[in-house]
Amino acid sequence: MSLPTSPQTTAVVLPSNFTNETANGLDSKCSRDGYGALHYTMAALILVLALAGNGFICVAFATRRKLRTVTNYFVVNLAVASFLLVIQWVVWIGLYLLCIDIAPVVKLAHILEILFGSASVVSLGVVSYDRYYAVTRALHYGSTMTHRRALTVIIAVWVYATITASLLLGTLDKTIGQLYMKIYISALFLFNFFIPFVISAYCYVRIFLIAMLHLQHGAPANQLSDPLSKASTLRKQLKISLNIFILAVPFLFIWNFFYAITVYEVMCYDCRVVESPTAEYFVSNLPEIIAAINPLIFICLTKNLRNFLIMGLRCSKDHHRRRANQFAQSESYPATTQFTTNYQGGNGYDAIAKV
C-alpha cells in the first residue's frame, strides 16, 4: 500500500485508476471498472494461500510441543503479522467493492499496513540474529536464548512497530504534511526495512563462512554420532539457519524493493515507476504476495511441519473413511434386521433363524 502523497501513488488493494484524492467521492461515484478477472484471481489466491499457510503454522506451533523452539517463536510471530496484514487487506478490498465510503479509514489502513509490515521485517532481522548467535555460540545457545526471552523480544518488536506506525499521524497536520511525509517515509525505510536487511545479510554471510570452515575441516565420526557434541549441535544449527535464510531473503528483498518504490514516489511527486495498470497492481500487492508464499516455503523446508501436515491429512482421510463405513453400515442395517423388527409372533428360535 503506497502512502497517500501523490496522485500517482495508489493504494495497495485498489485499481490503478483510484487515488486517495478520489476517495472522498467514492460514495457518489462507485465503480469497480479497475478490477478485472486477473485482479480477482490474484486476490483470491493471496487470500487462500496466506490464511491457510500462516494459519497452519500457528496451529502447528500451538498443538505440537516439539515445534515450540525459540527460533519458531519468531517464525510464528512473522506468521501472525502476515496473517493480520492479509486480514486488513481483505477488509480494505471488501469496503471498496461494497461501495462503502473509505475516506475516513484510509489513514488507519496505512497505519495498520506499516504496523504489520514493520513487525514482519523486524522479526526477520531478529530471527537472523538468533540464527547467527545459535551458530557462533552453539553450546551456550540453549541456556541463553530461553522461551521467556524470546517472548520479551517479540513484545518489544510489536511495541516498536506500533510506535513507528503511529508516527504517520503527523501527516494530518496540513501545514507540514508533505515535508513530514518525506522525512517519515525515508526514516521508516531506513530503520524498519533497510537496516534489518543489512543485519540479516551480515548474519548470514558470517553463518555461511562458518559453514564453509566446518566443511573444510570436518569433524570426527564419533562426534557427529553424539547429539550433544559441539560438531553435531553446530551441524543442526546450520541446517536450521539454511531454512531461515531461504525464508528470509525473498521476504526482505521484496519488502525493501516495495518501500524503495514508495520512497521514490514520495520524493518525486510527479514520477511514476510502472506504467502498466496490471504491473502497478502486482507491485502494489507485493507485501501480500510474499505473505502468501513465505509460509508455504517454510512448511516445505521444515520436516516437523511437513510431518504434521501429512499426519493431519491422514487423520482427515481416516475420518472420512470411518464416516463412509458408518454410513454404509447404517444403510445395510434395516435390510439385515427387517425380519426381527417386523416379527410379531412365533417363538424365539424362529426369530433368530430369520436373522
UniProtKB/TrEMBL annotation:
GO terms for cellular component: dendrite; plasma membrane; synapse. InterPro entries: GPCR_Rhodpsn (IPR000276), GPCR_Rhodpsn_7TM (IPR017452). Residues 53-298 form the G-protein coupled receptors family 1 profile domain. The chain crosses the membrane at residues 37-62, 74-98, 110-129, 150-171, 183-205, 240-261, 281-301. It is found in: Cell membrane. The keyword Transmembrane applies. The keyword Cell membrane applies. GO terms for biological process: chemical synaptic transmission; G protein-coupled receptor signaling pathway, coupled to cyclic nucleotide second messenger. It is a multi-pass membrane protein. Its main location: membrane. Keywords: Cell membrane, G-protein coupled receptor, Membrane, Receptor, Transducer, Transmembrane, Transmembrane helix. GO terms for molecular function: G protein-coupled serotonin receptor activity; neurotransmitter receptor activity. Belongs to the G-protein coupled receptor 1 family. PANTHER family: 5-HYDROXYTRYPTAMINE RECEPTOR (PTHR24247). This is D(2) dopamine receptor-like.
